[in-house]
Amino acid sequence: MDLTASEHEMLNWLDGQGDAMSETLKAWVAVNSGSDNAAGLERMRALIAEAFAPLGGDARAAELAHSTVVEADGSLHERAYTPAFHMRVRPDAPVKIVLTGHHDTVFPADSPFQTGRMLDAGRFNAPGAADMKGGILVMLHALMALERHPQKDHIGYDVLISPDEEIGSLGSGPLLASLGARAHVGMTYEPALADGSLAGARKGSGNWSLKVTGRAAHAGRAHHEGRNAIAAASAFGVALDALNGRRDGVTFNLARIDGGGPPNVVPANAVARLNVRVKDEADQAWVLSELGRLVADVNARDGIIAELHGGFTRPPKPMTPANAQMFEWTRAAGAAIGLDIRWADTGGVCEGNNLWAAGCPNVDTLGVRGANIHSHDEYAVLSSLPERAKLSAVMLFRFASGGFDAPAARALAAKTS
Predict the structure, then answer these.
(1) What's the CATH class of domain 5-201+318-416?
(2) What kind of architecture, by CATH, is found in domain 204-314?
(3) Element (H, E) at 99
(4) pTM score, whole prediction
(5) Confidence class of residue 416 from pLDDT cuts 50, 70 and 90?
(6) What number of other Cβ atoms are within 10 A of residue 274's Cβ?
């Protein structure tokens, strides 16, 4: 792929932004924005709004839907979320792109992991450095380069940066679906691996909570009158685990059982929490059938009532022809700037799953190179900030010029879905 002289100038400008990007990242990771830290999330959203303001788009605080949460005691409540950052630029342009990311992290306000440090000359260890405050900066600078391109008016884009990705995007899911439905293609800024490899096909994921109600009784004098909710939940968990290996690529994980109390009381309440990963829609149907069967078995126990809450929050994202085209374009853009872009399938999930469920082909690991995410050893490779911004910029240049035919990719997705 040949780049024009002006495009080379824009990429050179991005190379010169490396130090400023690193300094901004160091400031951003100092703001704790764990998924449950509303004050920190709002502070981070304000910083993002300030950083994106030079793009000149229509920015707003996007209110998110509530979701139902099952508490440890089995009670239900509606969970509210802080707003997402949403910016729209040139909505009437012929090519429409949605770029997504998240400003929440897995590190709560009381986490001991609150500050950043350099591991060596190139690796920055900090909460959210790779996942994905670094990715937000990559996205921003790629768009800043696009805004310098002579064909920028051919592209209109939506930016959505959400506060709930690390907890399943239950609030932002409807907005992701809406934006994915109107876009030709999507670009999401989860981190690449340290060697630069991207995630290819992704499994789908579902989370459930099984609320089990029994009957309390004295464990000595009236044990026979009790109905043990924890025993019933445990039996469900054993049966659930036995489903592993029954269908290729489908995994069931019993993550936790809440409930119980003093050892001299038959427990009346329990909540079993689980996650399931699947490869395709047929797997989803099989899982739902098996879960229904297991719940019916629990309800068949004398004096026990079981209610299953939850569902598939991120459908599978297979390597369809449309998604494969997106990766080939990413590879071509990488080659233009000397990068060898590779990818591999993964069991992990992200907003790319949500976009694909809306028919939007996408690449979802366009962020910084990094490793050890979701741990205190998380790090970002600082040199990859301008490097990955250049990769996205070249893709945006080609979407603008028509060299990458985004509407055709969307049409292909519709044809083969």
Answers:
(1) alpha beta
(2) 2-Layer Sandwich (3.30)
(3) strand 95-102
(4) 0.94
(5) confident
(6) 22
